[in-house]
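Worked example 4.2. Below are the chains of a multi-component assembly; read each line carefully before continuing.
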Amino acid sequence: MNRTTGNELVRGAEERLKALFVRGLAGDTAAYHAFLADLTAHLRGFLRKRLFHLQDDVEDLVQEILLAVHNGRHTYRPDEPLTAWVHAIARYKLTDYFRARSRREALNTPLDDELEIFATSDAEAADARRDLSTLLDQLPDRQRLPILHVKLQGLSVTETAKLTGLSESAVKVGVHRGLKALALKFQNGS
Amino acid sequence: MKTEDLITLLATGAAPVDRHALARRFSLALLAGGIGSTLLMALVFGVRPDLASVAATAVFWLKVALPFFIGIGALAATVRLARPGVAPGYAWAALAWPVVAVWIAAIVLVWLAPADTRLPLVLGKTWRVCPLNIAFLSVPGFIAVFWALRGLAPTRLRAAGFAGGLLASATATLAYCLHCPEMALPFWAVWYLLGMAIPACVGAWLGPRLLRW
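Applying the procedure described above to all two chains together yields the following structure tokens:
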């Protein structure tokens, strides 16, 4: 591939992703869904190249970055390139991951190398190793229930408020804080 | 949970975002920090009794200008560092020029002064307490600015912590100007800057811990 086509590809992705993201920020959930799905593919490619020997961790990190993009989406300004914004978040999460990893490796001497050969199987390679549902269960009810009803069951904020006895603003705050707490659990658990 | 499920979770019911979240957070933080520092100054140290007459002199406004312009630079740097992919760039320069200017002026003034008045010019009467007083008055602003940053998305945590700490201490120094009796520029060049540097360094130290997201 020559350089010009490469650049055009990148520009195409930037324009397409940005258009979807901006619509998503305005409340278009279908566009936002398409943006996240498209972004996931880019992130996977980005991380596979950088985590050459650590392919098992790629999917965990993809999820961590997606959550970070979601939690930080109010800091994006449409007059700036989306590429720079997403890249800064991905790099931040990647650095954090390497730091946590080197700290962990320093503590555990890898004595279990031989056992590790059978520890993972190929069929699961594309799955995230960390189970998000388990982390979700650890959240307090005022965050877990709003996420469960609004985000997983697709109920409206009003319906969730009626169901849980929380106020509507408490439901919104619960979703928001819950997803931020989830991101921190990601880091600490990884 | 598979990644596809996470995407669906994130997209479901995603409400429109608040476009002015950053401006709102920083306005609130500056307001809280400004009021907090001023109240603390008035209660603990007291407004200087001759403020009305001093406020008519140019040198008083020169003193106020130092933390004011450093605060402008710190605000620019903090706001930029609060968002991913935005380099602080010229904001560091906006921060540096008041420091450079006050140092050049201080060196010239000390140079011109008679030898036996040079030391009093720099030390004044309150050099022992001035930096600590400024650091103390920074506490409300520090909490407020870090609250603002935690609701945004800084990716260079140490730099963001430094700029945020400096923003808090510049606000505190503005409040301290209403109490501080020192009127010699070389004094401000040393002790005001030292006082502002303390919360900035604490911010750089705590940034990676407090601002992680």
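Take a moment to check your reading of the output against the notes. Chain B touches chain A at residues 1-19, 21-22, 82-86, 152-153, 155, 212-213 (CB under 8 Å). The CA atoms of residues 80 and 202 of chain B lie 20 Å apart.
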